[in-house]
Specification:
By secondary structure, this protein is α+β, with helices and mostly antiparallel strands. It has eight helices and eleven strands.
Length: about 240
């Protein structure tokens, strides 16, 4: 089930939610990710404005991703929030929320034992010059978009999983649309030049992949924003 788009509340319910969120403060998820529920409310309500209009019939409380819905179902005592979650999610989804247990990827018995097979590498006739030129400087976030690379991780074929999204705060890859947070402002993708001075090559890619546990069968796709001929695909085995 997809995450709730928006939750609409009355002025009194909004005030109750604000009071609860302020009391909760900073929340730490199982993987170490930290967030404040109040920030989700603030994104739709200018609460610092002394002239904030409390006389409207309806307000947007927040727009929540699925991982936040799980946390709310387990931790939020507000009945109107619970009722909205019950309306949106089926019994199976709510049971999944209740039974979910986070497992640190680095505790996996296969961590550090993965093998990487490059099934696609740059093949342009000028790629040697291109790769050398691109490694002279970091183009992010400058104007040299043709040198910028993005990275995403795709699930195996015939898998029920949508793939993995990156979390910049925890430096982990989590299930796409799953029950652990990812980085929404980057759409779950890893911008190579955001973390590295130079564009990727085989050695630097493997060096990065060894930091994370990526399950076997997944495909790491590292793609140039402008030219398809400069892409990498790596199979995790």
């Amino acid at each position: 089930m997809a995450a709730i788009d928006r939750t609409y509340v009355t002025a009194q319910e909004l005030k109750e939610a604000i009071a609860w969120a302020k009391e909760v403060g900073l929340v730490t998820m199982e993987n170490g990710y930290e967030f404040k529920p109040l920030n989700y409310i603030n994104s739709y309500n200018d609460l610092d404005n002394p002239d904030f209009d409390w006389n409207r019939e309806e307000y947007i409380l927040w727009s929540t991703p699925r991982w936040f819905d799980r946390w709310l179902w387990l931790n939020c005592p507000l009945e109107f929030v619970k009722d909205r979650l019950k309306f949106q999610y089926g019994d199976d989804d709510l049971k999944e929320f209740e039974n979910y247990v986070y497992h640190n990827p680095k505790d996996n018995v296969d961590f550090g034992k993965q093998h990487y097979t490059f099934i696609k590498v740059p093949k342009w006739r000028f790629c040697k010059w291109w790769m050398s030129h691109g490694r002279r400087k970091n183009p992010w976030p400058g104007k040299c978009i043709q040198l910028t690379y993005m990275m995403d991780i795709r699930a195996p074929k015939n898998s029920d999983n949508w793939g993995l999204d990156y979390n910049i705060q925890t430096d982990t890859w989590e299930e796409k649309f799953g029950l652990m947070p990812t980085t929404p402002w980057m759409n779950g993708e890893y911008i190579w030049q955001y973390y590295h001075n130079r564009i990727p090559n085989k050695k630097s890619i493997i060096r990065e992949l060894r930091k994370w546990y990526i399950p076997k069968g997944y495909i790491v796709h590292i793609y140039n924003l402008k030219y398809k001929g400069l892409n990498f695909d790596i199979l995790i085995k």
